[in-house]
Amino acid sequence: MFYGLSGVRHNSYVSDSKLFPVPADRNAVVFFLLLGLAAPYLVSSLYLNSYILPWLIWTAAVLGLNLVTGWAGQLHLGYAAVMAVGAYSAVHAAKFGIPWEFALLIGGLASSVIGSLFAFAALRTKGLYLALTTLAMQFVMDWVLTHSPTIAGGSHASLQSPTFALLGQDITSDAGLYYVAFGWCVLVTIFMLNLRRTGLGRALVAVREKDFAAAILGVNSFYYKLVAFAASSFIAGVSGAILVATFYFLAAPEQFAVNVSIQVLAMVIVGGLGSILGSYLGAALILLMPGVVNQLFSLGANLLGLDLGIETLAHIPNAAYGALIVIFLMVEPLGLGKLYANVRDYLMVWPFDQLKK
Amino acid sequence: MDLVFLAELTVNGALTGLLYSLFAIGLVLIYKSSSVPNLAQGALTMLGAYVVLAFSHNMGLPLWVAIPLAVVIMFFVGIGIEKVALRRLAGRPVIMILMMTMGIDIFLRGTTLAIWGGSSRSVDLGVSYEPLFVGDMLLSRIHIVGASVALALFVAFFLFFRSRLGIRLRAISDDYMASWSVGISVERGVGLSWGLASIVAVATGVIWGEIQGVDQSLSILLLKGLTVAVLGGLDSIIGAIVAGIILGILESVGSFYLDEIVGGGSRDLIVAAVLILTVMIRPHGLFGRHDIERV
């Protein structure tokens, strides 16, 4: 119906490996791209900068984690620490007078270097042990941030970010900041979309599925793990820097603490491992859910005449957040991306779905 | 720096370490039977302490009634978690299992705090806060009580794993398929190990709740418990005890020297360093089995 495959015939490998083999997918992407470009004129600036902007930046970060966890299959519980490295180096560089374009690059590269250290853990261990090592590294990074005033910025442990500027132009307007986040998210998305069409992406998937088998096929699994960690850390670093520069305006250690690492991983899981669309949906769900749940509960309490304490209301979103992860893993372990794919696969052949069975 | 002080640091460190072992035993029980790293043990510990409090403070029951009641309830909570959430993930990649236990952790923590509130409370075990003098050393009474509970639990589990039921659990941890084929119900065994771990969580929650108050910080024990469990070998209870003592001493003596250099708070750093070094150098820990896969 929406995804009519009739008339779509691929006669060569090149056309078969196009970015969007189904025209409907391409049209949908173009539509959402235009919608994203027009967003500042469609949405009030309150929604634009307090919901859509952080959503786009977190999506970019989630895509980065998906690269290492979803594609290369390496567990990473210290992602927020890597984002912190990028954010702090970029802000320090910008304070030092380096233009923001290069500051972002410095942040990304610094993250890459530190993030590759995590890859050396991946060289020796995998699965649970890799998760524990990265978790420990996250704690070390937290400790460094809270115990070194030179990095974290004095006794208040907060670091003011200088005014964001690109190409010498100060960017202060709401729409301007939004476009920065939008541009970065689109860049990362294009990179990730193309990744699965390249040898690199296929090698990563081979490493994920079975690293011995990949090694037998001549895929150097350590090299590809290192590449995955470095690339994902670069994305993490720049995302962290942009997050601080356009959203928080202030870098503080608790913005990149352990629970943030877990939150990003939850976005990946809820969205679906290795799914790009899922990264968007997962980030949106996890970011929006606490507010919505709180609204619902206070509404429900009002309707029923119950008096819920402030403390209770404060902790209910947390419980709902945990429940969300549990329910997703129980019902659809491959997340929202898979749910969408199911619908799409069904509609692709509709009304001739008997042909599939 | 005199020897008595060093001895005091060591003994107190070892006692604290045994309290970490108490936590780690819960992790080991579950990992041993089902190879599930239970990141929800921190939340279970917290929940256990809150359930005891709910009986003793809110309902006014004496502690010797409240604690057994909490043990029974938590036993079934543990079995329930395994049955509802973990069983259907058997055979899935470890990331999903990890994330599931983490989700349960967040959920339990949120629910517990939503019901009982986050303000810190004490259990009032009736152990005096007066320090105990052994020669010239000052020891904390509650730490001694906790350490004895840890050792008692160790002995209890040592005996338990020699009973008929315990041998069944050991068979399950050796080989799923083989135990299935000789008629052992693997599901029930794994459920039982979750129940036992939840009982351990009650003990941990009560002791730690007495030491630092019952609040959210109970679930932060997770990193230390994990470190102890990994250092001991994840599937060895004696390993958890020995590793707990080692980590406790390292932490207490090490942080005394390190704090002067780095300006305080080096305890967490030592724990993280021990965890990283263990995984890098000897991933199967001190007493764990060697079948842990290296890349």
Automatic annotation (TrEMBL), chain A:
Signal peptide: none annotated. Keywords: Cell membrane, Membrane, Transmembrane, Transmembrane helix. The keyword Transmembrane helix applies. InterPro entries: ABC_transp_permease, LivM-like. It is a multi-pass membrane protein. One of its GO terms (cellular component) is plasma membrane. PANTHER family: ABC TRANSPORTER PERMEASE PROTEIN, HIGH-AFFINITY BRANCHED-CHAIN AMINO ACID TRANSPORT SYSTEM PERMEASE. The lineage of its organism: unclassified sequences, metagenomes, ecological metagenomes. The chain crosses the membrane at residues 28-48, 55-82, 102-121, 128-145, 176-195, 226-250, 256-273, 280-299, 319-341. Pfam families: BPD_transp_2. The keyword Nucleotide-binding does not apply. Its main location: membrane. GO terms for molecular function: branched-chain amino acid transmembrane transporter activity. It is found in: Cell membrane. This is Branched-chain amino acid ABC transporter permease.
Automatic annotation (TrEMBL), chain B:
The keyword Cytoplasm does not apply. InterPro entries: ABC_transp_permease, BCAA_transport_permease. One of its GO terms (molecular function) is transmembrane transporter activity. GO terms for cellular component: plasma membrane. CDD domains: TM_PBP1_LivH_like. The chain crosses the membrane at residues 12-31, 61-81, 93-118, 138-161, 226-249, 269-287. It is a multi-pass membrane protein. The keyword Cell membrane applies. Its main location: membrane. It holds the Pfam family BPD_transp_2. Keywords: Amino-acid transport, Cell membrane, Membrane, Transmembrane, Transmembrane helix, Transport. GO terms for biological process: amino acid transport. It is found in: Cell membrane. Belongs to the binding-protein-dependent transport system permease family. LivHM subfamily. This is Branched-chain amino acid ABC transporter permease. The lineage of its organism: unclassified sequences, metagenomes, ecological metagenomes.
